[in-house]
Amino acid sequence: MANLVKIVNRAETLIFAFARVEAKKEFVMMIDHAKSTLFSLDAMAVPPMPPIRGVPTRSVKSGVSTQLGSIVEDETDARGASNKARFDEMLDALDIHIARREFEESTALVLDLKQHLEAAPNKGPESVREAVEAHIAELARLILADLLIPCSPRKQVSANVELLHRLGWDKEAKEAFLASRSATIKNRTRQLKLEGNTRLYIRELAVVYFRLIRNTCEWYSEFFLDPTMISALIAWVRQEMAGYAAIFRRHVFHEMQKFQIIASCLKHTLVEVEILGHAGLDLKFMLDQEFFPDLTGCIRSYETRCIAMLGKAVNEDSLAIASKITASTEELVKMFGNQIPIIAAVSKLDEVLGDFGNELRYIVRDSLYGQSVASVTAIIEGVLKHLLTALRRSNLTYAQEFALLASTQAIVSWVIPRSATQLDRVFGRTVTDIHNLEQRLEAFPASLQDVFCQKQSVAIARATFDFVTTDFNDDNEVTDNMTPSQEMEKLLLTLGVVARELDSWPAMPKRSILSGIIDCLFVQMIEPRNWETSKGEKRRFSHFGVHRLVLDIHFLLRVCGSLVSKGTNDMANRVCEKGLRAYFAANRSKGAEMKNRPWYDARVMETMQRLGFGFPQFGKGFEHRALQSFEGASPANSAAASRGNSASPATSVS
Predict the structure, then answer these.
(1) How far is CA 22 from the centre of its chain?
(2) Residue 193: left (phi > 0), alpha (psi -120 to 50), or beta?
(3) Residue 471: how many CB atoms within 10 A of its CB?
């Protein structure tokens, strides 16, 4: 570098190299001598013109004044040329310093040049001013390039920032400094090795990021004293926090790590963030803002996986009792007995909720309360929906259906309270939303029982007494030997089977379920579409057919007795009434005798004497059934359709 000379001629720049320094000095001295000679020649004025003969004296005086003015102008031009030469020398020296990357000397020379230009007439030649600005820009770009080098030592960075400040490039210095610190963080991060240990990697990553952020903040406050520049530092810190969060998110949240690992990684991060807090820079709130969406998303992902896993468990469950849990409270003993029967899917649900609560312990915070409660609720409700779907299958046995119903009750009365108690310990307070969930879902087991009753009523009706397909228009004769149909006897026998099966399930409300099935049977009968044929015509009832319908219904109600609710009794009367009206509408001219209530009671009594008064063996709770149960008044109200003549009297039915 010491042997180089740069020559600038307008837009052309030439650099010459000498073999020896002495040769370069001789060359420079020759140029200086040539310039001084040239400037001295330029400074010489043109000789004054002699007086012209014949010109008046006044003209001579005027000529003398003109010559004096010309001399003054020549002297001014000489001084200007001398200044220009001096500026050129300084610019040449500046070129050399810049070429040698002597930034300190270059900056000092630039400031000296600017002072000379300020002191010069008209602030110096315009060409010189432009050359100085160009050199300043070139020098600043070189210093900025040096400042942008990552991992530079503090002394070097400080010197470069100071030089740029002296040059008036504070804004550019600030941007270059922050960019270099970002590059330093990136370079140091790339040096970290991820060898399968996520916790170790995140701990090292947190050390790199937050300690470099702390150092940057300390350096920044020392290098840039202008308070208006603090906003740039805060924006940079936010940017780097987002960068750290992106890496953390990619390696921790997106990899579906366990909550324990997530909590450990967050702990390492918080330790480094607290170190920043001791240095006067509290970034914990930024960390919470960055990771809150990821934490809630992680909980939702856990919830989704649990719902899918439990849905598969319900679909693959044989719906047989897998285990029996000892009832721990008087309420549970009263409901289930000493042991609570549950299927495998419900046992899996209890296990999943327990694991979920244990996992939440690691990341618990008040901001996650809402999402945690929502996820637990969604998991429980998801299992209940799957159980409802499973109950609607057509190939289930009574034992499977009752196991499912009992397990549903166990979810509401046992699983939910256990989960609520666990979450109370996790959050350190009463989780009222989960406790209220037990009350909100209290009626769900009853809803499933209604579904069971509807399903069984349809199946029983189709297999025994199918009101929809039975022909009530046959022409048989009504006699005192008439008995309830065999289809109705089969229906009651099937109800007896259901009742005896329920004896093995103490948690099942036996009377409620049997009453629900009977109620659903009459709901089917009362449906308007079931009173029309497939062609859309009204169903026809013969004299024998309408008596058969009334007798079967009377028999059903008398046998079931206390299982018949008032609403069911009313629907039974409506069915009989519609049958009678249909008969009278089609047989107005016929005056066949209509039987009254004593006739129906006598037919029922004869049938019960034949079948036995224990028919159809409803099991526990019905041991008192005897002859007295079928004596006395009918449990139903009167329901008849009268045409207003003695040939068709009103008929009382039960």
Answers:
(1) 77
(2) beta
(3) 10
